[in-house]
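Q: I'm writing up a methods section and want to include an example of the input and output format. Could you take the sequence below and give the corresponding predicted structure tokens, formatted cleanly so I can copy it straight into the document?
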Amino acid sequence: MAKILIADDAAFMRMRCGRMLTEHGFEVIEAENGREAVEKYQACKPDVVLLDITMPEMDGLQALRAIKALDPQARVGMVTALGQQTVVMEALQAGARDFVVKPFQPERVLAAVEKLLR
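A: Here is the clean output for your methods example:
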């Protein structure tokens, strides 16, 4: 069973995404900001990370860079709101492998996780 780390400052988004992934057989770990995501990545070594871009304490881009510094092979996807295309491009250049636009469709999240696991 693959472990998925979901980092989003909105509890509702973590709960919604986490429930959907759990129902599809994944183990879910949650973080409410980028700093916590980096700490949980180190502690839990998840198979996939889904990072919101806009978070307090450490945003998704900073967390992405920190996680990739710890593990260049980390499989990270970004979760973004519409209108953040320039940030998405920066994230892809920093090592993110995919992105999901909010409000997300469950099928799109599952497709991204499957892509990241390959």
